[in-house]
């Protein structure tokens, strides 16, 4: 298989460049130029608010050709982004994509590729949603909503973008999961199950895409004050309106909290765009598989470490070994 061990081959030659590109993030006391994304085509899902909106603005200001996607156009958030792009002369295009809609995904990615003149360089699967409450009260409507958005959505987007990426022998897919994709907090409904699934799908893709020169990055944020909390509250209240008492009767205290959750405190949501920008700036083939992002506790770090060690120990000397070692940079 061509280029099967590209990470190992690149690691030595690129180590100095990778350090220089990322030192300004890892060492805030050092003043280095911000990354220049000129010439990079970046497609981001879920850009109406939160991390996605911040990424769209920041990466366009860094010179990227940004495709900011969101659902339910027209909407004020799209108008705001387009006005911003015009005022600041940014190369930013709003495209309608509901990640749950096969036709919109196919058409939206095709339009981005047309405007980019070829493959998307970086696909950032940021769109996501949440509900709340114990698993028993989650009906199929709530369950389908979360899996269709948080798992099948990134899968649809990757399938749409990968043929052109493979033809170009380059690319980066960034999937936004959560620390709750590695550790469990009761009462978060199907959110953790979907993020666990996205973690597994992302890692499998990372191995399979080594021969094609495409990196996969998993970003694991902790709690940040974004609109996901309001959306989760709204979804939970809608769920409770149609819930059956035979399911809700055992969880009174937990249910009493639904619709009132907030999170993130005074943390800065720009941590996530900054972390992704740091890794985009690293040479292809040297990027990490996972990055934990939060100024506070990151309980998933130990799990990430042992899982990487387990994968290498289990399959490192198998026929898949070069892929496994390349992804884990060993």
Largest sheet: 7 strands, parallel
Rg of Cα set: 20 Å
List the strand order in the largest sheet. Answer: 3-2-1-4-5-6-7
Terminal CA distance:
19 Å
Q: What count of structural domains?
A: 1
Q: Count the helices. How many? A: 12
Q: Got a strand count?
A: 7
Q: Label the CATH architecture.
A: 3-Layer(aba) Sandwich
What's the CATH class label?
Alpha Beta
Spans of at least 5 consecutive residues with low confidence: 1-32
Order of helices and strands: HEHEHEHEHEHEHHHHEHH
Derived structural class: alpha/beta
Strand % is 5-15%
What sort of overall outline do the alpha carbons produce when their principal axes are compared?
globular
- Average pLDDT: 89
Helix content: 40-55%
Q: Per CATH, what is the topology? A: Rossmann fold
Identify the CATH homologous superfamily: NAD(P)-binding Rossmann-like Domain
Oligomer: single chain
Give the tags.
330 residues; alpha/beta; Rossmann fold; 7-stranded parallel beta sheet; disordered N terminus
Descriptive overview:
With 330 residues, the protein is α/β, with parallel strands linked by helices. It has a single domain, classed as NAD(P)-binding Rossmann-like Domain (Rossmann fold). 50% of the residues lie in helices and 11% in strands. It is built from 12 helices and 7 strands. The chain has helices at 6-26, 50-61, 76-88, 102-116, 140-168, 191-208, 228-242, 245-248, 252-256, 271-280, 300-315, 321-327, and strands at 41-44, 65-70, 92-96, 122-125, 171-176, 214-221, 290-293. It has a 7-stranded parallel sheet with strand order 3-2-1-4-5-6-7, sandwiched between helices. Helix 6 links the parallel strand 5 and strand 6. Helix 2 (50-61) packs parallel to helix 3 (76-88), helix 2 (50-61) packs across helix 10 and helix 4 runs parallel beside helix 5. It is globular.
């Amino acid at each position: 298989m061509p280029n099967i061990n590209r990470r190992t081959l690149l690691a030595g030659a690129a180590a100095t460049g990778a350090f220089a590109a990322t030192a300004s993030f890892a060492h805030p006391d050092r003043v280095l130029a911000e990354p220049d994304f000129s010439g990079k085509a970046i497609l981001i899902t879920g850009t109406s608010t939160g991390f996605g909106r911040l990424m769209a603005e920041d990466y366009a200001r860094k010179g990227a050709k940004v495709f900011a996607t969101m659902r339910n156009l027209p909407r004020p958030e799209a108008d705001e982004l387009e006005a911003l792009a015009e005022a600041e002369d940014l190369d930013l295009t709003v495209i309608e994509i509901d990640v749950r809609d096969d036709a919109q995904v196919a058409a939206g990615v095709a339009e981005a590729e047309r405007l980019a003149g070829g493959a998307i360089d970086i696909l950032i699967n940021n769109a996501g949603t949440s509900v709340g409450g114990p698993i028993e009260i989650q009906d199929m409507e709530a369950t389908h909503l979360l899996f269709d958005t948080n798992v099948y959505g990134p899968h649809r987007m990757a399938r749409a973008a990968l043929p052109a990426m493979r033809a170009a022998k380059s690319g980066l897919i960034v999937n936004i999961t959560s620390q709750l994709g590695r550790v469990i907090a009761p009462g978060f409904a199907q959110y953790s199950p979907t993020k666990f699934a996205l973690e597994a799908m992302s890692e499998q893709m990372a191995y399979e895409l080594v021969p094609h020169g495409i990196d996969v990055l998993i970003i694991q944020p902790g709690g940040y004050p974004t609109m996901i909390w309001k959306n989760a509250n709204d979804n939970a209240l809608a769920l409770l309106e149609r819930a059956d008492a035979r399911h809700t009767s055992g969880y009174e205290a937990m249910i009493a909290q639904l619709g009132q959750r907030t999170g993130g405190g005074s943390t800065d949501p720009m941590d996530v765009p900054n972390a992704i920008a740091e890794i985009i700036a690293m040479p292809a083939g040297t990027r990490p598989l996972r990055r934990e992002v939060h100024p506070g506790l990151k309980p998933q770090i130990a799990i990430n470490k042992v899982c990487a060690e387990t994968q290498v120990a289990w399959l490192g000397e198998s026929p898949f070994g070069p892929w496994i070692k390349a992804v884990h940079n060993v």
